[in-house]
Amino acid sequence: MAMKDKMMDIEPQKRRAPSMVWPIAIGLGTAMLAGGFAGYNQAAAENGDAVLAPWIGPVVAILIGGLALAYFVRRHADWFRSWSPRKRLYWVSLTLSCALGFVAAMVMQSGTNGPEGLFSNAAMTPTAAIGLSAMWVVGLTIALVLYHRTVDDHERQAYHLGGLAGFYAFVFPCPVWWVLWRADMAPPVDAMMLFALSLTVNAAVYFWFKFR
Amino acid sequence: MNNQLKVLRAIRNWSQAELADRLDVSRQAVNAIETGKYDPSLPLAFKLARLFAMPIEEIFDDGHEGQDDGH
User: d(Cα B14, Cα B8) in Å, to the nearest integer?
Assistant: First the structure.
């Protein structure tokens, strides 16, 4: 009983968690707004009118979504302040990663022909290619440094196992496809297809070990 | 590895989320440890021992009690 009393002394003040409906709605609204810009550009291109730069839509959508999210955080500041520094930084890294992935996907898609263009080899302007490359390398580096500094034991294990599975999803099919192509039994090796396969397997294994 | 985490948590009337906050880990981590799907690292095991003010071997049981004492 004495031990229980001792534990109660250090009990943190309980705070009611806010509903997660709003962050989800903000995410969906941001995606819909970016989609609206993409639709506008597509219609303008079909009519022969001037189109906006491909990055404008996703960046404006992210800015508006970011403002809405900042308002949500401010409104529930007490609850967010109760988070540990590790947890706060962890969610910052995840939000940053999502924002970067979202902008990259929207820019790639708007520069090609619809959703099928996301992993296609369709032509891209040098500006978009350099911008996306810089965003990928710099943004991913920052997000990963934050992630690795804040991830807990359990998630680190899920991350490592997912990474290993993603690596095997590349190591097994790549040389097989390559030698089959050399024997004229398969089309040329498509790096982006292997990349997508590796990412998909990585994500599936990671989510399984994290949430099973 | 078996553990007493769920019982110790229930005695204190803590939810998984509350225990996770005290350990500064995710709720999924607490759930995975409780259900035996994940064995915590040594630092996390020590953190649990300090939190519950108990020796690690009273919280975790690897099923080999008395077999590694050299006798």
Answer: 9
Question: Residues of A numbered 87-116 whose beta carbons fall under 8 angstroms of chain B's beta carbons: which are they?
Answer: 87
How close is the nearest chain B Cα to the Cα of A93, in Å?
15
- Interface probe for B, chosen from A152, A153, A156, A210 (most Cβ of B below 10 Å), is A153
Q: pLDDT tens, A40-77?
A: 888 888 888 888 877 788 888 889 998 999 999 888 88
ipTM of model: 0.82
User: Using a CB-CB distance cutoff of 8 angstroms, which residues of chain A are in contact with residue B29?
Assistant: 152-155
Closest Cβ opposite residue B21 in set A8, A12, A210: A12
Give the count of beta carbons closer than 10 Å to the beta carbon of residue A121: 10
Q: How far apart are CA A41 and CA A49, in angstroms?
A: 9
Q: CB–CB of A108/A118 below 8 Å?
A: yes
What secondary structure does DSSP assign to A153-169, as a single string? HHHHHHHHHHHHHHHHH
Tokens of A83: 């988070």
Q: How confident is the model at residue A8 (pLDDT cuts 50, 70, 90)?
A: very low
Cβ atoms of A100 and A54 closer than 8 Å: no
